[in-house]
Amino acid sequence: MKPLIAGNWKMNGLSDDAKSLAEDLKARSAADLPACELLVCPPYLHIAQVAGILQGTEVRVGGQDCHTAGSGAHTGDVSGDMLRDLGCGYVILGHSERRADHGENDALVRAKAEAAQAAGLVPIVCVGETADQRASGEALAVIARQLKGSVPVGMDAERLVIAYEPVWAIGTGQTATPDDVVEVHREIRKLLVGLVGEGSDRVRILYGGSVKPANAAELLAQANVDGALVGGASLKAEDFWAIAASCP
Ligand code: PEP
Predict the structure, then answer these.
(1) 232 in ligand 1 pocket by Cβ < 6 Å?
(2) In whole angstroms, what is the distance from residue 135 CA to residue 23 CA?
């Protein structure tokens, strides 16, 4: 399975910043392409510009969220069809920041995942426990509950990505230990058999949470780690490229 290194730009950068980051990635992809699939997820407003710059390169573009409906009276929202129309191939769903900032629950994430696949996008469904949940020994139970609630049963395995993102590791500089990552990814892989059935071993499971050039190689070398979802470090082309180059 080709690993996927996905950059989540979140709500960062003005138009000129997005342009120079995309141009830097374009130049790097022409010079030296890592052995993984590369994806960047800019803020909605920059998607068209970034997709235009990266057209014809191996760096793909995705969204950070989408609505469950294809169109309609949903002020401020964006549909999977709109993302697809701008050249997106992926969409991040159920990120812990959306679960926290917008009260998104598993049922909504599941409906979005269904809508995204129907629109021709590959959903990247995020799950992960908080620090308190880990401290009280609930991490695996929380992840199992989120996964079962957020992933529609019988999804096309080739067109589904899961991201394990411990909430306490996002943007904090703390990363899960390789042993913890292996334990959680093994559990996710097991649960996927029941959820996706045939082909569940082909669903890519990404790790996310303070992935940097310095820790990427060790994390990406672990069993069932099929790539990374990268926040802060994806805003610097050099760091993003170094992480991608760490894929085994
Ligand atoms: C993320 O938000 O998806 C993320 C992993 O962020 P960071 O790499 O900054 O921890």
Answers:
(1) yes
(2) 42
pLDDT of 13 over the 90 cut: yes
155 lines ligand 1 (CB under 6 A): no
Q: Which domains does the chain have, with CATH numbers?
A: 4-245 (3.20.20.70)
Give phi and psi for 10, each to the nearest 5.
55, -145
Distance from the CA of 172 to the center of ligand 1, in angstroms?
Answer: 9
Question: Whole-model pTM above 0.85?
Answer: yes
pLDDT for res 32: 86
> Is 67 a known active-site residue?
no
- Per residue in 99-127, pLDDT tens? 999 999 999 999 999 999 999 999 999 99
95 belongs to the catalytic site: yes
CB-count burial class (<10 Å; 0-12, 13-18, 19+) for 217: middle
Cβ 234 vs Cβ 213: under 8 Å: no
Amino acid identity, position 238: E
Query: How many Å from the N-terminal Cα to the C-terminal Cα in the chain?
Result: 11
Q: Give the residue ranges of DSSP H helices in the chain.
A: 15-31, 44-54, 80-85, 96-101, 106-118, 131-135, 139-150, 178-196, 213-220, 237-245
CA distance 118 to 111: 11
Across the range 22-39, mean pLDDT stands at 94
Q: What is the average pLDDT across 141-168? A: 95
Whether 165 lines ligand 1, by a CB cut-off of 6 Å, is yes
Q: What is the pLDDT of residues 183-205, one digit of tens each?
A: 999 999 999 999 998 899 999 99
- Exposure string (b/e) for 181-192, b if CB count within 10 Å is 16 or more? bbebbebbbebb
Out of 37, 46, 67, 95, pick the active-site residue: 95
